[in-house]
Amino acid sequence: KGVLFSCQSFALNSHNIRLEIHFRHLSSTMKFSMLAIAAAALTAGVNGFAGTQMPAARTFAVRQSTMLKATEVETDKMAALATAANEARGLAMDSIAAAHSGHMGLPLGAAEIGASLYGSQMTYNAKDPQWMNRDRFILSAGHGSMFLYSWLNLAGFDLPMEEVKNFRQHHSMTPGHPEFPNSEHNTPGIECTTGPLGQGVANAVGFAVSEKMAAAKYNTEDHTIFDHHIYALAGDGCFQEGVSAEAAAFAAHEKLDNLIIFYDANEVTLDKMAEYTQSEDVLKRYEAYGWEVYDIDGHDLAVIEETIAAAKASNNGKPKFIKCNTIIGKGMEETEGTNAAHGEAGVPYVDNAKKNIGLPEGEKWFVSEGTRDYFGEVQAKNEATYNEWQATYKAWSEANPDMAKELEDAIADNVMSADDMIAAIPELNAGAEATRVSGYKVIQEISKLVPNYISGSADLHGSTRNYIDGAGNFGAGFDKDYAGKNLYFGIREHAMGSILNGIAYHGIFKASGSTFLVFVDYFRPTVRVAGLAELGRVSWILTHDSIGVGEDGPTHQPVETVSGLRVIPNVDVYRPADAEETVAAFVSSVTRKEGPTALIFSRQNLDQNDAVPAMERRAGALKGAYVAKKEEGDLDTIVLATGSEVQHALKAAEGRAGVRVVSMPCMEAFERQSDEYKEEVLPSSCTKRVAMEAGVSGLWYKYASKVVGVDRFGFSAPGDIVMKELGMSADNLSGVLDSMQ
Predict the structure, then answer these.
(1) Segment 356-393, tens digit of pLDDT
(2) Within 10 Å of residue 387's Cβ, how many Cβ atoms?
(3) Most buried by CB count within 10 Å: which residue of 143, 302, 404, 475?
(4) Residue numbers annotated as active site
(5) Element (H, E) at 706
């Protein structure tokens, strides 16, 4: 009839293929070989892992009638995976030793997880690493990058052994932390830039969002073209960081059951053993969020195999969390299981460790012919799946040519040119209005012109005004579905930033997210990574942009924040002065390919500069700066301003024949213009210049000798009073101009 046991109760002996059960006492020791467990699990089927009362304790039945047959089928595969795991350990050890730098603990401790994923459970085509329906793997614990490089080489990706040997060296394909393909690195198989702990977990949630959305949008009753899974490997550091908790709550709430997270539970952090700084039960925490949780031996290949298979097959609306109990630095007896194993402390012991795990003495970067042959078979299996999918895709595209064109344009990031998009959006003819209100009008047009554009908010749609009308809401339950273009992130800014990056990495949708500008500091680390990874598919809508917020006081009045964003390399920061500049800012955010864009919008109403035609304002704003008011006589003084301060500059310039006003909504875009254009806007012959912005003054001294700024925190009062008291008025600027004569 079979005997039921909990996975948590097994004592595993990988060298014993007999199933020995001693019933001397209730607490008797139970010894199971990994192959026997595999046989039992295969017999029970994946449903045998689905417990309802205690999800952490997966049970299955042992039925001896099929055990021997299953054992015979699995023996060669398990041996090959075990061999590959040890050879991957050897690659990591040799590369880290050669570099005298790196993190050895994870590649050694999680080798069996990598073997199962790349050698059995994941669907991918190493010859086409951009295949849209491949499974994705994210190494959230990016410091363990040699784990990933070793497996990419073994799995047949175009990562030559010479590059593995060149770990952490200049211009190599194997940088210290994984980097999404960009102008510095182009390593196939790297799905995500990781390193800042926890962000990779949240990025994986973004991948899962994008896959669900793509499936809902493009799959049909006759053809399924999206049905892949998202995997991520993370350690204690990732789960101590708050961003992973925020993202985990979101993932469970929106029922992202295409997501599988591995917890490399080695009980170690860098400084101390993990127990020194944590005592919560991470499994119970994730179970409370609403995840399906598993607790396994992270070195037992059969259990890993069956657990992943069960997780993939469980389409129950719950993301999956697999706690893999591992030994950090496994195989290096001098450091394994201690915090010393985390980094490169094991370098002196590499040769002995390799010998102990059965690798040939004296051979560096050894990979056996058997392992190469095995992964050749894996690739052949995956290519068969790939070819079958290609046939399905061909039939789907022939049946749905318009959808196919839209999808292919989305993946290739094909959008109309900025100039064409500018021309396609009707003039707004706005009166005095806040740029957040202008932004609401513009985002409706952007959504029509860019079908793969989606947007979300951290619980502030009503204030940030970035809701896309008629586009539906993403998620599960209530009025939501997975085809919706509007995302509700809850009050989870850090997760929002990482999820947006994950959506961008996935490579189909363009995504924006909104909050008050002052709260961008909650997710600033994700802005930095987006700039580093050159994620042109990402933008942020940041409203309530200055001391003009008023009554909410200095906690909600950003003064340093805009400049703080401007100093992040490869991030465009647009702070438009009126509705037509807002059009240009939005267009730039969806047409720029080289990096992300921050859109900075006002809470309060702003005047429109109708003296300059709408299309001229748009074209000028696209270039980052332009002449908003030309001098009427000989040029004597240039006033530069941005955002809400342009209106003050225009008023202060009235009646001053020699004053030119330059609107500079985006410093970064202006700096990319030709020297001729920059000289045309800001002639070097005119050195009498003053800049004005309701924020800290420092960056403006690049362009002006005097700056009217706000180099202090604000205070609680109506916005117009705060502005006036802190010098943000035409009258104050006029006085400054008078003093410069």
Answers:
(1) 999 999 999 999 999 999 999 999 999 999 999 999 99
(2) 11
(3) 302
(4) 493
(5) strand 706-708
